[in-house]
Design a protein that fits this description.
Layout: E1 2-6, E2 13-18, E3 21-23, E4 30-32, H1 49-64, E5 92-100, H2 104-111, H3 117-130, E6 135-145, H4 150-167, E7 170-178, E8 188-199, E9 214-219, H5 228-237, H6 255-259, H7 267-275, E10 281-284, H8 289-293, E11 302-307, H9 315-324, H10 328-334, E12 339-345, H11 350-354, E13 360-367, E14 375-379, E15 390-391
Parallel strand pairs: 6-7, 11-14
Antiparallel strand pairs: 1-2, 3-4, 5-8, 6-8, 9-12, 9-13, 10-12, 11-13, 14-15
Helix pairs in contact: 1-4, 3-4
Amino acid sequence: MTRIRQSPLTGRIFVLRAYVKVTTKNTGEAKSVASSKKTITYKDAGVDIAAGDALVERIKPLAKSTRRAGADSDLGGFGGLFDLRAAGFKDPVLVAATDGVGSKVKIALECNILDTVGIDLVAMCVNDLIVQGAEPLFFLDYFATGHLEIDPAHQIISGIAEGCRQAGCALIGGETAEMPGLYQGKDFDLAGFSVGAAERGTLLSPDNVKTGDIILGLPSSGIHSNGFSLVRKIVEEHGISYSDTKVFEGCEGTLGEAILAPTKIYVEALLPLLKAGKIKALSHITGGGLIENVPRTLPNGVDAYLEADNWEILPIFNWLQDMTALPPIEMLKTFNCGIGMVVIASPEDAKSVLAIEGAVEIGVVFASDAEKPSCYICSKDGALGQSGPWQTKPGGDQK
């Protein structure tokens, strides 16, 4: 029989002894159930605890390399710690973000380039924090796979650590899940979670934006982490290999390497300007592109007017447009098209933003009587693969 006792102090239940007997009807012979059963371990089921422990030991130096003020604990606890006071905050408001890398991980796996998607993971989270006016403080990751292999996992997490160093945030913990049957072969997925902070009263708000403010763009490093289901479809439909070279003009290395260029992290460039009060609004250009993300930073009563001829359309986007025959409006809704971050500043402060490497003035905020803000984009020189002038109306139509 099994006997249990409840602790009067904690309410926890302790098993004192569990012993089961089975008596056969014919002989009365008693035997242990366990002795008649085949032993099946967790490892037999596909989960290797020892491999998980070994991975934790391998990544401890990576986490330590991301330490910053407020975070100096080692991995291994039940939760990550962060000291806001030690980080210099007096009356902070916390801002949280979570994101993933999407089907870009599938291409990384096929190309066996695993050390960049971790940077993508961090970037997708911390860039969403900085646009709120918050300084990224710490990061946690979730890595799930069907079969844990230590070396590939270490490469992935090394990329996460690199992203954290670029963003100035600490990798204070994470979760590795080995789930055979749910993921096939070497398949894996990533999710990231980041928390930032800003002093009360300093967070960015659409209400800061006024008619006449200048819209500036910071260049992307490539496709970043959106639109990869379409990218994979292009490769499949056209019979292209990720190992092909010189696929488009300006393509250095293989197509896979060009596609997997990690998402740019804008924290280091923007944080000093935020603290100096030089920025009114920011927009991280992810899914939905410029068309859908810029209006999220605008108040009612204004629209954004952008000129696509003012920034460089990276060659990879011209290639994507050529492969898909998408009109400019669809390209601008699907990809960042060369602008990874949009900055809105007063005319007086725009000069400070232009000091950021690669920053360009791309538009202006103007008054509108529309029900909600929109982003209006035009080209006189036929950018994005369409000859002659074109424009998108507020609301996303094209004429």
